[in-house]
Structures are given as C-alpha cells and as structure tokens.
C-alpha cells in the first residue's frame, strides 16, 4: 500500500492538497494540530515542531505501507505567533520532517515543502553571510536562540524561516536522491486562504503588492495544490532540489519596492 501525507490539512492550501491528492495514493493521511475529519483520509494530530509527534506519524506510515509522498503545508504566519515560534514551526518543523521521513524513502518517493515568496524579498542573490550559516543548521540545539537575535519581529522571522525551508529542501534532495526520492519546495505569493487574508488585513503593504502583481488577483489554494501535485507525481521524476515561485509574477512586479 502506498501512503501520502499532507500536513496543514485542515484548511487552506493543505486542505486543497488533500482534495487534489485523493485518488493518487492508496492511503492518505491528513495531518493538523487536531486530527482533521476529512472523507477519504485518515486524520492524525501532530505538532510538526514536536519530534515525538513526528516519530509517531512516521511509525503510522510504516505500519500502513510504502511512503509515496509528503506535502508539507503546515506553518504559522507572522500574526499567529512570535518570532521564535514562527521559526520553530516553519523551519525547524520542516527540517524535522525531512530528516524523519528520509529512512522511509524508496524509489519514487517525493516531498514538497512550503516556502514563501517573502523569502525572495530579504536577501541578495549572493546570499546573506550572517544569517544563512545559522539557517543551515535548524536542528542545532542553539538554533532558535541564535536566530531570534538576528531577526527583529515575527514578520522578518517568517521570511527568514521560509528562506531556510528553501535551503533545507535543497539539502535534503541529496540524501533523498541517493535513495531514489525527490524533494522540492514551492513559494506561494498572495494566496486567498484564511491565513493569507488575515495577513492581508494586518499589513497594508500587501495591498500595494497585489496592485503590482501583473496577473492582478490573489492566487487560489487549488492552483498551489496543482503545482504540488505535479511535483509529487512521476511526471516530475527528474525535478528535485528546486524552489518554484507561484505568485502571478508578483516578484518582478514589486522589484521597485524591494530593489
């Protein structure tokens, strides 16, 4: 039996992934802080920043069969938590999942992790010599203590956490690839989800960013799920270690804001 796992499955882009991936696997596990009740999926409660909870999730996958895919959409936004918690859930949680699932990887296994277009707004193309070395060891015991000294608020922490996700996914593509598996990340722009709309109301700059988005609208969670489904499918069998922006060309549109 093949097993696919979707985190952040209760709503938003995670829920859209559940709907999109149902039928592409023999067993679908829908993960959130509280076990979701979704037809055609097994609900599992898991805090992705808790290693013991992740271990139980991995054990459940092993009980069921062969690990097919992981769509890791779980996360917290800047208005939901302080900087430390944002880093802990969005980056440390991603690193924990990728490490825990690596032993389960077989040829054809694949993972997609959620980064964000915000990651492209904070660092020059050459990288950040101060923060990147810290971002690259998210499972170090002192990671959170070191990183919170380098970010000013939860919004900044979110962007750096998502940059760390991009880098973590690219690194994981090496050991996963040696087992025949793949890891990629997707970077949504302004997407119409409950979390996204909450951020939109809190941060006026996002209206400016939307006005400068060439396609002139918010993205839909179903569109992000479609991209994730492609990256998890055999059609993308030679795509690994990359991050893909899905933002309606927002980043080129706002180049003057962050240039």
**Averaged pLDDT:** 95
Low-confidence stretches: none
Question: Which structural class should the secondary elements be placed in?
Answer: alpha/beta
N-to-C CA distance? 49 Å
In CATH, what is the class?
Answer: Alpha Beta
Strand line-up in the sheet with most strands? 3-2-1-4-5-6-9
- The number of helical runs is 11
Determine the fraction of residues in helical runs and give it as a percent range. Answer: 40-55%
Work out the number of β strands.
Answer: 9
Q: In sequence order, what are the helices and strands, one letter per element?
A: EHEEHEHEHHHEEHHEHEHH
| Dominant shape | globular
Number of domains: 1
Q: What is the third-level CATH name, the topology? A: Rossmann fold
How much is the radius of gyration in Å?
17 Å
CATH superfamily: NAD(P)-binding Rossmann-like Domain
